[in-house]
Amino acid sequence: MEPYLDTSALAKWYLNEPFSGEFEAFIQEQSSAAISRLTVVEFRCLLARRRRAGEITKTIELRVFAAFEQDIRAGFLQVYPVADEHLIAALELIARLGRFPLHTLDAMHLAIAQGTHVRRLATADRTMAGAGHAIGLEVVRLY
Known about the structure:
CATH topology: Rossmann fold
Strand content: 5-15%
Helix content: 55-70%
Number of helices: 7
Strand order of the largest sheet: 1-4-5
Distance between the termini: 23 Å
CATH superfamily: 5'-nuclease
Radius of gyration: 15 Å
CATH architecture: 3-Layer(aba) Sandwich
């Protein structure tokens, strides 16, 4: 089954970051990968934030997002919708996983991953990795 890609991991595929090589090796072994509509919005925001910070140019921002959209159109990235049930599940995860300081979007990603019945999570976020492991996911750590 395909892995669920957290936005922090996904960025390593499109931008040159620490552990980009490890992510590339991992992703090349996959026939497809799961993301959510939340990931699409969050990735677009990540690119805009990096442009505003002067880390990438507007041209790179647009080129990277176009490549990302092409991977979605090609079917490699399977985009799952965000549903009200995912928000309810995120609330439950925050309560159940109190020892992990989950951010809102991380809890939502975990709830969506659970809702899509994936078994693996790729992330570059230590808190998300710990929480993912705690809910029974095999975690690919990219940090």
